[in-house]
Amino acid sequence: DDTRLNVDNDGIIIRNSHSIRLYDYLFDKNSGYRSDLRPIRDPKGQINVTLTFHLRQIIKLIQNNQVFVSNFWIDMEWPDEYLRWNASDYGDISYIKIPASLIWLPDMVVYNQADIGSDLMKSKKSTTAQIYSNGTIKLRPTPLIIKSNCQID
Q: What whole-number distance in Å separates Cα of residue 105 and Cα of residue 39?
């Protein structure tokens, strides 16, 4: 499918002339895109992030410590106002796949997390993001192992 920019298993972008121009348009240092800033033009605006949790496995329940260890896949979707393009200007590329580490990622906290030292952001950064020409970002699926406090009666 030549309507997307692919990433191989090592996160290397597969290139053609349209995808190189698109990538440069979105991420070149002259584009001004910054993954450390919220992707919205209105500084008071909100970014609606849709999360869908899929419980894949209950790994274990540690009763004496009241800890529940589970494996989730999380689908995430949100708009990025700075990552938009006209597909017809780039060989009709309607979406691209890139390493998620290149884009802004929403903060995510599990409030009843038992393993305070674990990094929830690490799993998101190691996955691939789909960016659509209208600015929609999709991370699917993002695997995550969560150790949470679970009060057992």
A: 9
Residue 51, CB-side half-sphere exposure with 13 Å CA sphere: 16
- Distance from the Cα of residue 106 to its chain's centroid: 8
What Å distances lie between residue 63 and 66, 91, 131, 151, CA to CA? 5, 57, 42, 9
- The residue among 41, 5, 34 whose CA lies nearest residue 131 is 5
Tens of pLDDT, residues 94-126: 988 888 889 999 887 665 566 655 555 555 556
The helix (H) or strand (E) run that includes residue 97 is strand 95-99
DSSP 8-state code for residue 7: B
**Are the C-beta atoms of residues 124 and 108 closer than 8 Å to each other?**
yes
Q: Which DSSP letter does residue 122 get?
A: H
CA 127 to chain centre: 7
pTM: 0.76
